[in-house]
Amino acid sequence: MGWGTPLLSRMLHGPGQVGEAASVLQRQSGSGDPASEDRRPLGKQHSQNLYIMGQNCQRGQAVDIEPQIRPPLTEDKIDKYLYAMRLSDEILIDILTRFKKEMKNGLSRDYNPTASVKMLPTFVRSIPDGSEKGDFIALDLGGSSFRILRVQVNHEKNQNVSMESEIYDTPENIVHGSGTQLFDHVADCLGDFMEKKKIKDKKLPVGFTFSFPCRQSKIDEAVLITWTKRFKASGVEGADVVKLLNKAIKKRGDYDANIVAVVNDTVGTMMTCGYDDQQCEVGLIIGTGTNACYMEELRHIDLVEGDEGRMCINTEWGAFGDDGSLEDIRTEFDRELDRGSLNPGKQLFEKMVSGMYMGELVRLILVKMAKEGLLFEGRITPELLTRGKFNTSDVSAIEKDKEGIQNAKEILTRLGVEPSDVDCVSVQHICTIVSFRSANLVAATLGAILNRLRDNKGTPRLRTTVGVDGSLYKMHPQYSRRFHKTLRRLVPDSDVRFLLSESGSGKGAAMVTAVAYRLAEQHRQIEETLAHFRLSKQTLMEVKKRLRTEMEMGLRKETNSKATVKMLPSFVRSIPDGTEHGDFLALDLGGTNFRVLLVKIRSGKKRTVEMHNKIYSIPLEIMQGTGDELFDHIVSCISDFLDYMGIKGPRMPLGFTFSFPCHQTNLDCGILISWTKGFKATDCEGHDVASLLRDAVKRREEFDLDVVAVVNDTVGTMMTCAYEEPTCEIGLIVGTGTNACYMEEMKNVEMVEGNQGQMCINMEWGAFGDNGCLDDIRTDFDKVVDEYSLNSGKQRFEKMISGMYLGEIVRNILIDFTKKGFLFRGQISEPLKTRGIFETKFLSQIESDRLALLQVRAILQQLGLNSTCDDSILVKTVCGVVSKRAAQLCGAGMAAVVEKIRENRGLDHLNVTVGVDGTLYKLHPHFSRIMHQTVKELSPKCTVSFLLSEDGSGKGAALITAVGVRLRGDPSIA
């Protein structure tokens, strides 16, 4: 039957006729049938006017009115009489907005203490993913009886859950007695169940569904806030129910149980449905009571530490309105029902919607209308006046399509009121209004949750599943259909699937336990893998010590040939002293592009460095052609630059930054050891690159150059920073590759004659470990990355640190975790198989503190990796562990360098500055901080400052040239 019941109209006015007043009311309210899809919200003023019309149902006390007989009740009279229970979409949207505000208050640390909607964290962080398995016990306590279940979960191709259960009574003397009696009873029943199932000797994990408001600080703890329903056991409120149950079990002493998780029945419902549908992220109960839970972003939950991932929030929405926020929609019947309840002033929303109260609301309406002579010819019976005589099951029976009127007659006859046919139809209409209001209100509050989920995900349209349970939703013939229709109108931008929980919340408690076990096992295996990347201070001290040994080997003439860390002399003997002056050319070659620079250095009171540069490309055919072709191309570009700057003419000094491994015999001589980075030009390896450049200049016969210095980019970085900061004596590059240089005492540089002064040593530390001295800290993932690299077995330290390789290490770990089913639902996608997909910039972005997990997911999506929230957390963890190890290893290397300088000079304490360049150091959100901290911890007798090189190594080459010119006393530079 609809709201405007046609049968009632026909009985009063004859076939095909509808009362005039009913027609007017239909026009005013937008629709005579609340179930209609085209109900229109009332205009605000119009709504207020009609609301005032309906206030007659909120005046006076029903019990005080003398029975009187009035003309037969018409449809419009019922609608007007109960107008305040009819809620337009405009009002429902307003309620939705109010509930969103209450949710926000409940999540806030500042407002939670006074919030009526408590938004309790459950510490359930993940829904089932289908890989759960094991044997579990579930306890389900929350009503007149409680269930104990044995749930066996098999993780095969066809997920299979088998359950055995027993129902036990909870007598009145137990639920109203002491807490000790209650939990002794639960422990006795559990012992009986285990005896029957012959599992007393097994210590099975237990999930405990405890359907009362609890405050949790972890998943296996639940402090009861307040009893609800009919429970009043003393000494439990404010206590941890897990401890009380464990105490009762221990007192028995004949079995053991491991209580892994305590969950609310709503959470249990979500988890039960989540096992069948992994899109399920909301749990809803509409039965004797009502409540909802959903998966909230951890960053919004002030009451829980951490900001990554999600956690299920138990809204406890039954208390919505306890602060007075629903007073404008509560009727006199709601207030009368509340006054006669066990908990006046509490759970006001629940009292307007749930099955425990719906029948009683209808009874109170019938009493008042009968006393006013609108029903039963004014007859009032003791049965009608007795609380609890009209149940919600009666409401459901009366609202059935076919037999509803007959059911009404039988139920009302049982109450002794001798109903007429008109009375029966009128009562059906009243039941419809009351149950429809309930469906509308629940749709509004659920709509608020769906809006929040959509906003959290930042998506214009939400697709989700709601796990639902409860006798009202399941048993009422019209409830679910009306509820769904209203919800679709209120949140049209959400596609919601409702999944009925067939097994109740007990299975859900077992699933929470299963998920907790799965996560614990996954966590153990993940930690076992990542533990190899986590370096202790002792290990880092050992790395520092070993590098120091390798440095000594590289400096000594007799061991240099066997050393992996070559400690190449750069013949740069001094840092700038501020007197450098003149115009210098610089050439910066290190990749497919190279720069030509004019650097104007001015000394005096106001020192300045002015730079002009132009970038040129090197085509692949020239990179891989002959040496003459390569250097002719370079000289051609220099010629173009001199023309561009208008300075072709005088012979100019030039510094050549050549970022390939070279053996230097002088500042202006660099013999190429081997090409890297895709260069393969012939007749260059084993030759002096400065001579090859001079020869190309001669062949062109256009200009002349004075090649003063051939320098490594790391040395260039040190010199650039040293010009600004005289204490800078170390250079470090951590980008695509990594290297370091520092000022060594000449007496220790056995490969070069002379004992006076200092010389910058280009360490080429990327090769540290190539002799196997780091094999004990290299992981299987490092070995795989090395094996598939272009230079297998070489640059092993660099492959653990630099940006070129970190992404590959991460990718290989993710593949391993995916194979084990920890990531991406166990599916290895084509992008994940692609080498080089994880560039350094992605690591830097993923690890950024400013990025929410949604943005991390967006980055992974950009890489073709469809991730869940949990996947994103794990990917971020892996990136963090790999980059932290890189920063720590780099810090250990730097600690070895600063300690050597300190000991060289016999100082108790060294103050020194490191000039740094490189994308990993500059762009990664945590690398520099971790590296600095590591240096500080490993070298406590050194105060090390780090200065970022802003102008690259080209400026450094010009400064080295300027220093070289100054030291040789060339008078032509002025």
Automatic annotation (TrEMBL):
The reaction(s) this protein catalyses: D-glucose + ATP = D-glucose 6-phosphate + ADP + H(+); a D-hexose + ATP = a D-hexose 6-phosphate + ADP + H(+)
Domain Hexokinase N-terminal: 78-275, 526-723
Lineage: Eukaryota, Metazoa, Chordata, Craniata, Vertebrata
Pathway: Carbohydrate degradation; glycolysis; D-glyceraldehyde 3-phosphate and glycerone phosphate from D-glucose: step 1/4; Carbohydrate metabolism; hexose metabolism
Family annotation (PANTHER family): HEXOKINASE, HEXOKINASE-1
Keywords: ATP-binding, Cytoplasm, Glycolysis, Kinase, Membrane, Mitochondrion, Nucleotide-binding, Repeat, Transferase
Domain Hexokinase C-terminal: start-end pairs: 282-515, 729-963
EC number(s) from the headed UniProt entry: 2.7.1.1
Subcellular location: Cytoplasm; Mitochondrion membrane
Protein name, UniProt field: hexokinase
PROSITE patterns: HEXOKINASE_1, HEXOKINASE_2
Keyword Cytoplasm: yes
Entry coiled-coil feature ranges: none
Region Disordered: start-end pairs: 19-44
InterPro entries xrefs: ATPase_NBD, Hexokinase, Hexokinase_BS, Hexokinase_C, Hexokinase_N
Gene Ontology MF terms: ATP binding; D-glucose binding; fructokinase activity; glucokinase activity; peptidoglycan binding
Gene: Hk1
Topology within the bilayer: Peripheral membrane protein
Biological process (GO), any one: fructose 6-phosphate metabolic process
Family: Belongs to the hexokinase family.
Enzyme class name: transferase
Organism expressing this protein natively: Rattus norvegicus (Rat)
Gene Ontology CC annotation, any one: membrane raft
